Amino acid sequence: MKKKNLIFTLLIFLTGFVSCNTNKVFLESNSNTILEKHLRVAILPFRVVFSEGYKKISTGNRQGNWQEQQRVAGLDLQKDAFTILTKRAAKKQWSFTVQDFLTTNKILQKEDIRFSELPSIEKGKLAKLLGVDAVIWGETTMEFNMGSFGNRNGMNTKMQLFDATSTLLIWQNEAFQELNSRADSPKDLSNRSVSSLINSLPYKKSSINY
User: Fold this and answer.
1) Which of 53, 63, 79, 176 sits 20 to 30 Å CA-CA off 98?
2) Residue 205 lies in a domain
3) What confidence score (pLDDT) does residue 159 get?
4) What DSSP assignment string belongs to 31-55?
5) For residue 208, is it within any domain?
6) Residue 188 lies in a domain
7) pLDDT of residue 18
8) pLDDT for residue 164 is more than 70
9) How big, in percent rounded to 5, are the helix, strand and coil portions of the chain?
10) b or e along 169-202 (b: 16 or more beta carbons within 10 Å of the residue's beta carbon)?
């Protein structure tokens, strides 16, 4: 852990600026009608990729463990996204509930779907399988380029929302979170990225009074 903190400190000195940009937004033209019908939303385990630059500076980890580390990081992000989305949905009075991530993962395991297979499976069909109206899928890449000036160091996260009925991609957005503190960790970066993306989801406040 101390070695990782030292690495992050060095990287911060090499990056002279800080920003969190969201871009590449996509929204289905008929999204309002579709989103109004969403009553239950699930979050899939994220796909996490560590760049080669990040692997090189993390010399304390064995190369053979990267696949498992990425899998665990994806599950952690799923859990964090579930917590953030649940709180955000309540605060903004969105009309859907969020399926517990443990329930989601149990269904995937029951259907013999490995987490490593998720990127290649049609997400709309997964939503139907999970018994929800929509699923959120996220992919994040941790970019760290020691000594490479002009390149940003941090985390790029893409989040997508798929509808179960039409199986269509309804919404997509990306956020890049740069290092902005000596105490920053991969978890800090991922939480900020996920939080900003969930905040930009196109759902509207429910008009129903409970």
Assistant:
1) 176
2) no
3) 97
4) HHHHHTT--EEEEPPPEEEE-HHHH
5) no
6) yes
7) 38
8) yes
9) 45, 25, 35
10) bbbbbbbbbbbbeeebebebbbbbbbbbbbeebe
Q: Could you tell me the pLDDT band of residue 72, with boundaries at 50, 70 and 90?
A: very high
> Is residue 209 over pLDDT 90?
no
Name which residue leads in pLDDT, 57 or 80: 80
- Residue type at position 156: N
Token pair for 183? 């105490």
Contact 204, 93 (CB under 8 A): no
Residues present in the chain in total: 210
Give kind and range of the element (H or E) at residue 11.
helix 2-14
Q: Are 34 and 166 in contact (CB under 8 A)?
A: yes
Distance CA 173, CA 23 (A): 6
Instruction: Output the CA torsion sign for 180, 184, 187, 191.
Output: negative
Question: What is the total count of domains within the chain?
Answer: 1
Q: Give the span between the Cα atoms of 75 and 97, in whole angstroms.
A: 20
Which structural domain range is residue 125 located in?
Answer: 2-199
Integer Cα distance of 113 and 92 in angstroms: 33
Would 209 be classed as within a structural domain?
no
Q: pLDDT averaged over the chain?
A: 83
Q: How many CB atoms lie within 10 A of CB 53?
A: 18
**39 vs 59: CA distance, rounded Å:** 46
CATH code for the domain in which residue 34 is found = 3.40.50.10610
How far apart are alpha carbons 171 and 150 in whole angstroms? Answer: 31
Q: Which residue has the tokens 């871009």?
A: 23
State if pTM tops 0.85: no
